[in-house]
Amino acid sequence: MLSFKRCLSILLFLFFAAASNAQQSTPITLKELLNLADKKAPELLTDSAAILIRQSQAAETRSNWLPNLRLNYQADIGTSNNTTGPYFGFGIIPSSSGGIHNTSVTTAVGDNLGIAALDWEIYNFGKYGAENKVANSDIKVEQNQFAQSKFQLQAFTISNYLQLLRLQDFLNIQYRNIQRNQQIRRSIESLAKSGVRAGVDTSIAEAELSKARLNYIELKNQFKQQQLQLSVVTGLPYQSIVPDTTVEATLINQPSAYLFNPDTSNHPLINFYRSVYQNNLQRETLVKKLYNPKISLEAAAWGRGSSVNTSGQYNDVSSGYGFQRGNYLVGLGISYNLFDLRRRQLKLRTQKASTNYALKKLEEEQQLLAVSASQADVEMQTSLERLKEIPNQLKAANDGYRQKLSLYKNGLTDIVDLDAALNILYRAETDFMQAKYNYANALFQKAITQNQVNTVLNFLK
């Protein structure tokens, strides 16, 4: 019977443990989180829409070569009482007929006019081609900016994921610290009741336990804040973002994880600044061609009617409606403004300054990436050295704490020495946690700087 009850108790325990685990969030891998960020991040959706704008603008630019074909018609009634003489046209000219009478005539005239006019800039010595190249270059810049945003989002997601992992480790350390303080308090209470220890030790232990609990509460808040940061870019409920705690150990156990060559030829940051520089070069070419001569084809056909006949007699107003004469005119013209030489020089000087700035930004980014890679290498090597040494510190601190606890229970040391040993153990555990985080962070910083994130991700499940 006892055996049956024991088996039943074990089965019930396993059932409740399984149910409890089922309710907990399944850890999400870094790869899964990056994939979600790539699809759900609001800033990427915005940047992808900006590409469509540039593509529409390029399509608009490609249509600049289209001619202007204007159709005009008007039917009028009024006087034709003018004198002959030249003039400059200012806006709308009411009438262009000359004087045909010696005296002023105010008789109403009816007339109509229909015109089809073609104006086509058929050749401008490369201006259309330069405009199209600039428009295509604008698309390239926008696409590279989108790739840069994805790259920066990837770096942001990795950094926050590693911070979340660090806080998870810190929470585990703090939880163990609370358990140790509870153990110390129980020992003190037992010793105080038997008169071996003074009651003041209980108060000190209670204060240390309360401090450990407050630290745990603060860490939980930081953990949730980090979850919220990742929730924004992935669209996941923040409670479900639980890190995979095997990441650091997996990377540390891969001695070749950091042995990769930099991919600087296809780096998103370099590509963006390179495309901006190329875009400015294309704009220089456009400025050079913007003020070139223009060859235009001009053509017009028109019909006209008037109630005034060829002898200058004013007939019925209605006789002026309907075309009585028709004409056409075709011409090929070239135009060039000599003062455009100076305008071109000034505009080209401004554009060259902008091109030089873009080149300096490109060189600056290349130097920053090189420095960042060197810094990541140094930090990674330092982290490896820490990881080799810290186990010694951790073992010594753990042994020291156990010895102090045993001595305290036997009345051979005081609460101050025991708390000091506990703090040394706590610091050793946090140092070990920080060393693991520093290594993983340095490794990913190197991978990000050298555009080899996927190489490192392949080591993770």
TrEMBL record:
One of its GO terms (cellular component) is cell outer membrane. Its main location: membrane. The keyword S-adenosyl-L-methionine does not apply. InterPro entries: OMP_efflux, TolC-like. Keywords: Cell outer membrane, Membrane, Signal, Transmembrane, Transmembrane beta strand, Transport. It is found in: Cell outer membrane. Coiled coil: none annotated. One of its GO terms (molecular function) is porin activity. It holds the Pfam family OEP. Transmembrane segments: none annotated. The keyword Transcription does not apply. PANTHER family: OUTER MEMBRANE PROTEIN TOLC. This is Transporter. It comes from Mucilaginibacter xinganensis.
